[in-house]
Write a structure and sequence with these properties.
The complex is a heterodimer of chains A (623) and B (327).
Chain A: E1 9-14, E2 18-25, E3 28-31, E4 41-42, E5 45-47, E6 53-55, H1 57-61, E7 70-71, H2 85-93, E8 97-100, E9 107-111, E10 114-117, H3 118-137, E11 143-148, H4 154-166, E12 170-176, H5 177-186, E13 193-200, E14 205-213, E15 216-225, H6 230-248, H7 258-274, E16 280-289, E17 298-305, H8 306-330, E18 340-344, H9 351-361, H10 374-387, E19 396-398, E20 404-409, E21 413-418, E22 426-433, E23 442-449, E24 458-465, E25 477-484, E26 490-496, E27 502-505, H11 515-533, H12 538-565, H13 571-590, H14 593-614
Parallel strand pairs in A: 1-11, 11-12, 13-18, 15-19
Antiparallel strand pairs in A: 1-2, 2-3, 2-4, 5-6, 5-7, 8-9, 9-10, 13-14, 14-15, 16-17, 20-21, 20-23, 22-25, 23-24, 25-26, 26-27
Chain B: H1 19-23, H2 30-41, H3 48-51, H4 60-74, H5 87-105, H6 108-118, H7 121-148, H8 150-171, H9 174-187, H10 192-222, H11 226-239, H12 244-256, H13 260-273, H14 278-290, H15 294-307, H16 312-326
Classes of the chains: A alpha+beta (623), B mainly alpha (327).
Chain lengths: 623, 327
């Protein structure tokens, strides 16, 4: 069968800040551009004031004017428990509202007029990428490989799979981001090497050690920190700016203004990126915050040196190296035994990160691959390998489980049943007995983590083995089989050794979505999904994008005009803005899509400037 | 080599294939179906090396390489897009078994334990022999080290002397034992065991020697060689001063030889060693009488008779004393 007859398959890198979709076409892995012509789609979802759902670049552009209803970095929350340290930290810094799920154990996000489960937010991003891929192929796409950080636990993986289902995707496999990067690195070459993948992304840090040989990618060890990434670097810059602003402007606290905070966040991220190429970066945020009581608005004018950034983030870089060191020790590999170090994730462009890696390994890290695209490319290669007959892409991934899987035992301790770095799929049998006479049930808590103390590990689920024959203690043997699939997802089944009676147990409840809830969400999305499936040709793809931009501009137009009318701003800027409005109107009449893409961004920037002048958020009118 | 490695023709000789399994319609070549059924059917019998197609105790690198070759065939992912039917479950089970085999055989301690457990009989014998060889060799190595290092050498010599001394003591060769212990103590003056043992051996060996001398003396006396008897008695009394009998006997012979002073000293030694020994007082009485100290002599004899009224020689002596007193 040739590729043409098969339904196309895609690989998706669902990132914290950006997502990428890729495929293998004629044996060559390549990134699919989104409908705006970009390779990277921001992992941002919003509900506009008129109730429309926005995903990607368009959601990012309106984030400043709509911070309460714009969700970014949802990946940091997916599969997390309400009340966990990570969620508590996130609540303090995220501009949008988090609430507990109905069962009280998962996290939900308030956006627009309703509360969203996190997988549904991620589902919107996946759905957007799916639509991009369908526009690219001109036909339906239903199967995908989705990547997650290697250090994701079972709950986070399950929730990611749920996100795929919500988006109408059959997630063929969940694979680890560093492994995926290694796959892209080794693809088409005949390498026989021991490599380390150093993956510092927007929100997570992963390190993997692999033996690559004869097209088999054998992961020997993984380590990481699911709460360490580029966002933390941005935050350091933000905090520094906030603090010095307060000092210079007599105690004005930017944190009380969500809109100012959003602009500050964007500017911090941009400055951080600029400093990878330049020694100094300027941060100019005019009219950042109202002066209060009729005083003029305050501007932020600041320069940041590369040394300053490195000083602010030194401990974060050190933490990365500590994780690398621990991971290597764990599998008994010395830095000198590593043949190549692959840098993945946008954060690895930062010179101080590269230097730390170079110093630790004593070698120049490999920069032959594009750090933002490589994960999606690997996912596409794996997707292709999993759906096509052997021969066209001869790759085989042997991945491992990142954390110990075990159970709670007497005294609150954690007993490991499947140790970390065990090749998956894998299963392990464990025999439980009763501890009291005539005991008829046994409660088993399944956990994942690195600590000896149960409470410090992630609880995957609890189940009760009921219906045990009442007899003397220790006389009943119950075989419990712990299984980890190739996706890294845990399942448990139990069998009474004497009666042979079986019980299958669902372990996970962390994703927070019941099967019913999942079905309901999928039904709700059907209309929208059906609409998107209509998009088949290149022409229609452009028209759809254009119409969307026109709608956006029309919504903005009256606000801009109004802002201009009562402006005291420089004549030059007013004229420029007016010209831009006219050009945009002309482009609408001429239906010039390309022109509108450019103008849309320019208008958005103009709007932000004017908003500072008018001193408040513009009222958005319905279409 | 085919995709299944070196599959010899008689590999499946004793294996019975279920025709229904072979007939199942799946997208797998017959050769591979057979191999899957065979491995799955024999999973419990094959050891880790056999499963990987290796000889027993093949090195870790070979296990790793074999694993990578095998998983290309038996990893479920390699059969994506194929109809597998009931074979999928079998393939998954084989894959897990292969992984376990790899995990055990590439990890040094686990591998060594597993090798001992699964060794064929002749290999087991050879391994045991090698282990014993190793023990002998390590003893030799220790000895060589002992010769090379003066400190270690001295400690080893002390250890040897003490153990030889103990053996001698157990065999009753007390003098030899005492000598060894004393030598050991000379090499290591703070060796507590050697010190105690030397003391013990010295005492026991002195008693032994004295008894020997005493027996020899009695024999000499019985055979009429008085001079020899005298020397032996006196030597015995000298060697074991704690036994009153030796001193008393020596005193008696010395008195007969006419050496009164020496006889008196020996008699007094006997009385000191045995304040309740009749013969010691009898000897003292005899010396005192010979020295003309009749009153003291009588008191001593009377004491001897108090302690042992059956002492005929003492009674005779007493009579004699009465005579001299009267005369």
């Amino acid at each position: 069968m040739s590729d043409l007859e098969l339904e196309p398959v895609i690989g998706i890198d669902l990132g914290t800040t950006n997502s990428v979709v890729a495929t293998v076409l004629d044996g060559v892995p390549r990134v699919i551009q989104n409908r705006s012509g970009q390779l990277l789609t921001p992992s941002i979802v919003a509900v506009a004031k008129n109730g429309r759902r926005l995903v990607g670049q368009i959601a990012k552009r309106q984030a400043v004017t709509n911070p309460d209803n714009t969700v970014f970095a949802a990946k940091r929350l997916i599969g997390r428990r309400w009340g966990s340290r990570e969620v508590e930290d996130a609540r303090k810094i995220l501009p949008y509202d988090l609430v507990a799920g109905p069962e009280g154990n998962d996290v939900r996000i308030r956006m627009g007029d309703r509360v969203w489960p996190v997988p549904e937010i991620s589902g919107l991003i996946l759905s957007e990428l799916k639509t991009d891929a369908e526009a690219f192929f001109g036909r339906q796409v239903t199967r995908a490989v989705v990547t997650v950080p290697a250090y994701f636990n079972d709950g986070q993986r399950q929730a990611t799979k749920d996100a795929g289902r919500i988006a109408g995707l059959d997630v063929t496999r969940i694979i680890n981001e560093p492994t995926s990067a290694a796959l892209a690195y080794g693809f088409g070459k005949s390498v026989e090497k021991k490599v380390v993948v150093f993956d510092l992304g927007g929100g997570t840090f992963d390190v993997s050690i692999l033996d690559i040989g004869k097209s088999v990618y054998d992961v020997v060890g993984v380590g990481g920190d699911t709460y360490l990434g580029g966002e933390d670097f941005d935050r350091r810059v933000m905090d520094w700016l906030t603090f010095s602003f307060a000092k210079e402007k007599g105690g004005v606290d930017l944190r009380r203004d969500k809109m100012a905070l959003q602009r500050l966040k964007d500017a911090s991220e941009k400055a951080k990126c600029d400093l990878s190429g330049a020694a100094v970066a300027g941060i100019h945020l005019p009219f950042l915050i109202g002066g209060g009581e009729g005083r003029p608005a305050l501007h932020l004018e600041k320069q940041i040196q590369r040394e300053k950034l490195e000083e602010l983030t030194k401990d974060l870089v050190d933490r990365c190296i500590q994780v690398v060191d621990r991971t290597l020790r764990d599998v008994g590999v010395r830095p000198s035994q590593i043949d190549d170090v692959i840098l993945v994730g946008g954060m690895t462009r930062m010179p101080s990160v590269q230097k730390a890696v170079r110093d630790f390994f004593g070698r120049e890290p490999s920069r032959g691959v594009h750090p933002e695209e490589v994960v999606a490319l690997g996912a596409a290669i794996q997707a292709h390998a999993l759906t096509h007959r052997q021969g066209s892409t001869e790759v085989l991934l042997l991945d491992v489980t990142p954390q110990n899987l075990g159970i709670l035992v007497v005294g609150g301790y954690f007993q490991t049943i499947i140790p970390r770095n065990t090749t998956v799929p894998t299963s392990q049998m464990h025999v439980f007995t009763t501890s009291q006479d005539n005991q008829t049930s046994v409660r088993i808590a399944v956990l994942q983590g690195a600590s000896d103390k149960a409470i410090e590990n992630e609880l995957l689920g609890e189940f009760v083995l009921a219906g045990i024959r009442p007899t003397l203690r220790g006389e009943v043997g119950i075989e419990v089989n712990f299984d980890i699939s190739a996706d890294g997802i845990v399942s448990v089944s139990a069998r009474d050794m004497v009666t042979g009676q079986c019980q299958s147990i669902t372990v996970t409840a962390t994703s927070g979505l019941t099967e019913d809830e999942l079905k309901r969400i999928m039904d709700e999305n059907v209309d929208e999904l059906l609409a998107r499936k209509q998009i088949v040709s290149d022409f229609e793809r452009r028209r759809e994008a254009t119409e969307r931009i026109i709608g956006e501009i029309e919504a903005l137009m009256p606000v801009v005009t109004a802002a201009l009318a009562r402006s005291r701003f420089g004549k030059d800027a007013v004229n420029k803005a007016q010209a831009m409005v006219q050009r945009a109107q002309a482009a609408i009449r001429a239906q010039d899509g390309d022109q509108l893409v450019t103008l849309g961004e320019q208008l958005d920037r103009t709007l932000q400037l004017f908003k500072g002048l008018s001193g408040g958020a513009p009222e958005e009118r319905g279409p | 080599m085919g995709p299944l490695g070196s599959v010899s023709g008689d590999r499946y000789n004793n294996f019975v294939f279920v025709p229904a399994d072979l007939a199942e319609e799946v997208d797998l070549p017959l050769e591979l179906k057979k191999e899957i059924l065979y491995l799955y059917g024999r999973l419990d019998e094959l050891d880790h090396w056999q499963l990987l197609g290796l000889r027993w105790n093949a090195p870790p690198e070979a296990a790793r390489a074999a694993y990578l070759e095998k998983v290309k065939i038996f990893h479920p992912d390699r059969h994506a897009g194929r109809r597998l039917g009931s074979y999928l479950g079998r393939i998954e089970k084989i894959f897990r078994a292969l992984t376990e085999a790899r995990d055990v055989l590439t990890q040094d301690t686990q591998r060594a334990a597993y090798a001992r457990k699964t060794a064929p009989p002749e290999e087991f014998a050879r391994m045991e022999a090698r282990r014993l060889d190793d023990e002998v060799r390590s003893q030799e190595r220790r000895d060589r080290l002992a010769r090379a290092n003066p400190l270690v050498a001295r400690a080893a010599r002390v250890r040897d002397l003490v153990s030889r001394g103990k053996q001698s003591m157990a065999d009753g060769k007390l003098t030899q034992a005492a000598n060894d212990f004393l030598t050991a103590l000379g090499l290591d003056p703070r060796h507590p065991e050697a010190r105690a043992l030397a003391e013990q051996a010295k005492k026991r060996s002195a008693g032994e020697r004295a008894r020997e001398l005493y027996d020899r003396a009695l024999a000499a006396e019985a055979m009429g060689s008085r001079a020899a008897a005298l020397t032996a008695f006196r030597e015995a009394a000298e060697t074991d001063q704690a036994n009153p009998r030796y001193a008393a006997a020596a005193s008696r012979m010395t008195l007969e030889a006419g050496e009164l002073e020496d006889a008196r000293a020996l008699a007094e030694q006997a009385v000191r060693a045995g304040p309740r020994d009749a013969r010691a007082f009898e000897a003292l009485g005899a010396v005192l009488q010979a020295q003309g100290l009749s009153r003291e002599a009588r008191r001593a004899i009377e004491r001897a008779l108090d302690l042992d009224p059956s002492l005929e020689s003492a009674r005779g002596l007493l009579k004699k004393l009465r005579w001299s007193f009267l005369g």
